[in-house]
Amino acid sequence: MPYAIRFARTGGPEVLASEAVEVGVPGPGEVRIRHTAIGVNFIDTYQRSGLYPLALPSGLGQEAAGVIEAVGDGVTGLGAGDRVAYAGGPLGAYSTHRIMPASVLVKLPDEIDDETAASIMLQGMTVEYLVRRTFAVQPGQTVLWHAAAGGVGQIAVQWLKSEGANVIGTVGSDAKADIVRRLGCDHVLNYRSDDVVAAVRRLTGGRGVPVVYDSVGKDTFERSLDCLAPRGMFVSFGNASGAVPAFAPLLLSQKGSLFFTRPRLADYTATRDELLASAGALFEKVRSGAISVAPSARYPLAQVAQAHRDLEARATTGSIILVP
């Protein structure tokens, strides 16, 4: 019997519950998918906890790979048996089967297996828009990336190095530092024990970096601003330690006419063309060998609460997936 993970109230991982579902048949422009691997991302915990409010009860999960079982009227370019993946669209990826709009699906190349796809779609396309479009990093530039050992961070380090950038990565432990060094990160700092600002200034000849990418939030915000060169950009795309505190815009001018942005993937893949271009760029990086990604942990779908606990405790590195 198909089932899905849902929640009727916000809170800790214990609010997640398994429910039998009737999937039905796809309507016009839709397909029915049998999931083979499901991505787990920090945004899922924000939605479950209530930080990002949802209408309840709700499903959860934005990323998965699977096989199309049936297509509805008007669907072109996709058929039963095709391997596909998605990142975004209606919530509900934490499920064995579901109906999805065909417009949000990307057909998977033969070289990319389902588990890899579920590990990279949301995080990899996030890296794509962050380093190519939010701030277009150029060869030779030095960037600061917080949480470099996380799922997004590991992809980012590899992507940036393949484009000739110099990467300063921060991590929260020595074990995570070793992981990031193996990926080619030029300089690794422990944001729990190192003086990150002093180190960044020293590594950049006192000037600072042109861009800081920060998914940590509250714990690294002030230091991030102090690491930026004049007219540098602070890119806030997550809140692992809590939300960035409110601040007066005057602070940005006082620290060097800085830019602050809070982007999200949905706005960078808003059209079908943008989605396909972003996924295509990601797949090419994987196929070329510039990026090597595999899930660092797998959990049965029924153990999703434990997956959330481990993610929030920062007990994981890289990408984690659920297996139906």
TrEMBL record:
<dbReference type="InterPro" id="IPR020843">
    <property type="entry name" value="ER"/>
</dbReference>
<dbReference type="GO" id="GO:0005829">
    <property type="term" value="C:cytosol"/>
</dbReference>
<dbReference type="Pfam" id="PF08240">
    <property type="entry name" value="ADH_N"/>
</dbReference>
<dbReference type="InterPro" id="IPR013154">
    <property type="entry name" value="ADH-like_N"/>
</dbReference>
<dbReference type="Pfam" id="PF00107">
    <property type="entry name" value="ADH_zinc_N"/>
</dbReference>
<keyword id="KW-0560">Oxidoreductase</keyword>
<keyword id="KW-0521">NADP</keyword>
<dbReference type="GO" id="GO:0008270">
    <property type="term" value="F:zinc ion binding"/>
</dbReference>
<dbReference type="GO" id="GO:0070402">
    <property type="term" value="F:NADPH binding"/>
</dbReference>
<dbReference type="GO" id="GO:0035925">
    <property type="term" value="F:mRNA 3'-UTR AU-rich region binding"/>
</dbReference>
<protein>
    <submittedName>
        <fullName>NADPH:quinone reductase or related Zn-dependent oxidoreductase</fullName>
    </submittedName>
</protein>
<dbReference type="GO" id="GO:0003960">
    <property type="term" value="F:quinone reductase (NADPH) activity"/>
</dbReference>
<feature type="domain" description="Enoyl reductase (ER)">
    <location>
        <begin position="11"/>
        <end position="322"/>
    </location>
</feature>
<dbReference type="InterPro" id="IPR002364">
    <property type="entry name" value="Quin_OxRdtase/zeta-crystal_CS"/>
</dbReference>
<dbReference type="InterPro" id="IPR047618">
    <property type="entry name" value="QOR-like"/>
</dbReference>
<dbReference type="InterPro" id="IPR011032">
    <property type="entry name" value="GroES-like_sf"/>
</dbReference>
<dbReference type="InterPro" id="IPR036291">
    <property type="entry name" value="NAD(P)-bd_dom_sf"/>
</dbReference>
<dbReference type="InterPro" id="IPR013149">
    <property type="entry name" value="ADH-like_C"/>
</dbReference>
